[in-house]
Amino acid sequence: MMAANDIHALEAVFIPEADNHRAYRNALGSFTTGVTVVTAMTADGPIGMTVNSFASVSLDPPLVLWSPAKSSSRYGAFTGARHFAIHVLSADQDHLSAAFTRGGSGFDGIDVRFNDEGVPVLPGTLARFECAEQAQHDAGDHTIIIGKVLRVAHRQGEPLCFSGGRFGRFAV
């Protein structure tokens, strides 16, 4: 076992600035997250985006959040959407994650349905939160979108995880 002094000696302490952007991203990557795909309907059709900035906000009322980057080509479509769905991916659904990243194939070849609000939903994900936009908050180079959860779909399974720039599984 390492002594406390040895552990502190391994830390790199810095102020996050433009010249150490990569070090800051690496530090953030130490926090393992789940992987989600957020979908919405636009005047041009359905859109989706792979996102790991998802969190629960409140149980009563049921609120969740996610944060699209302002630099995303899909940013305006999502901030303009009044309804959206957040899909939590299972460990065997990395193909869905890839489909909705920049340059991905999107909905091509993917089973998609539409909920009562017209939002595209992906059946069979680990969990799905169908939401109405509750609020938006400016947050630097992102916007925090808070949704009121209207419906939930859930099944048992193992989540897809993202840590240190890589996808993986949770090991017990």
UniProtKB/TrEMBL annotation:
Q: Which UniProt keywords apply?
A: Oxidoreductase
Q: A GO molecular-function term, please? A: FMN binding
Q: Does the keyword Hydrolase apply?
A: no
| Any Pfam family matching the protein | Flavin_Reduct
Q: Which residues form the Flavin reductase like domain?
A: 28-169
Which protein are we looking at?
A: Flavin reductase (DIM6/NTAB) family NADH-FMN oxidoreductase RutF
The protein's organism comes out as Rhizobium rosettiformans
Phylogenetic placement of the source organism: Bacteria, Pseudomonadati, Pseudomonadota, Alphaproteobacteria, Hyphomicrobiales
